[in-house]
Amino acid sequence: MVPFHAVHFSVVRRCGGSEVGKQSGKGSTRSFALLCVASFFMYGVNNVMISRAPLAVMGMGASAAAAGFQGTFFIVFAIVLRTVLMPLTSRIGTKRLMILGAASFAAASALFPFCATYGMFLAVRAVQAAGLAVFWPLSVSSVVDVSDEGNVGWRLGVSRFATSASMAVGPYAAFALGDVMGTGWLYGALLLASCLAIVALAACKLPSDAHGEGAGAAGKSRVARPPRRGALAQFGGGGLWLAGVLLVTLVDSAAAGLVMHFSAIAVGEFDGSLNAASYLSLYSIGGMIASLLLGRALDRGKCGIVLPACIASFGLGVLQLGLPHASFVGLAVGGVLAGVGNMGVALCCMDIITRRAPLRLRDTALGYRQSCVDIGIAVAATAFGAAFDAAPANYVVFLAWGAIMLCFAVAVCINLARAAKTRGGK
């Protein structure tokens, strides 16, 4: 295990042969816009299923534990599929693999209405897992491909704005449709959204499309077989910088899992003027604010300031859930702070990877990061559930994790300062 003090969160602008931006001009803008549209629909479908799937399986007579297991199964199976499917970028190209992921969402949406048993539902979730496996990391990589070095942070932020908007809008719209028109119409809407994502992706022109055709030196360099070394050592600097990014991602994702799964506990103890859905909407709004405001700061090389500040912001948001709620405003501000922190940390980690990882290893590094996101959220459901059962009161868990995140923010800040001092002394 890598000791924390040895993990360097250095955030240099370019390193190790990383390439940012291989397409510019109107084609780049058009492709970027289409990627945002595809991300909006794909994340929207996934967000709806996160909320809908437990209700669907419990409606089949399954237990609450089984309802929770299907979510864990979906994530774990996606992580396994990611190791198998991601190398296919060298054979069929990034865009085609993303379309395959969107098609898995479309197929699952078409099959869900016919699931009469829990086993059938799990099988369809396994089909859908292919989309989570490949689309999430490759959508980030593709945004970087159509960006210039001077605006990659801004474009990553705008693309995350689209995904946050889908979380704020998707579940409300889908459940309203299901209540009025029925479950069949809801799944029909998910099928339509998945198909629209496929259309948007098909219309994109990505520099990485050449990967599957074997054309161009850039394509060959990106998909070249990594040297036979340790999984992290191949990234330069012993891989310590990437280990640091993945550690931050795990802590951030665990906090996100705590908020998504258990914020209703704290909100439910309030006076009723704010329900769990409204709180998560405020959390999404915080993410949208961060998406628009922080991208430019990252393009100006301010990641070393933004990262610890966002970890602290998320910690304050979690901490606030454990404090006595004297007013609606206090709880609402806490939700926005948590959303800003979560999205800000995600943007910083993606920015560091896209600027530091060698081009041929960038998709691999982004895949590692996405797996840490999935693992963090999945483990949080079980670990924090056990913590709530063991704690003398619910607020203790929120206060404890909020305090841990604040301490972690200080540790990251110190580590960044030491790394900068070390580089400055050379």
Automatic annotation (TrEMBL):
It comes from the Bacteria. Residues 32-420 form the Major facilitator superfamily (MFS) profile domain. It is found in: Cell membrane. GO terms for cellular component: plasma membrane. GO terms for molecular function: transmembrane transporter activity. It is a multi-pass membrane protein. Keywords: Cell membrane, Membrane, Transmembrane, Transmembrane helix. PROSITE patterns: MFS. The chain crosses the membrane at residues 32-50, 62-85, 97-121, 184-204, 238-264, 276-298, 305-323, 329-350, 371-388, 394-417. This is MFS transporter. It comes from Senegalimassilia faecalis. The lineage of its organism: Bacteria, Bacillati, Actinomycetota, Coriobacteriia, Coriobacteriales.
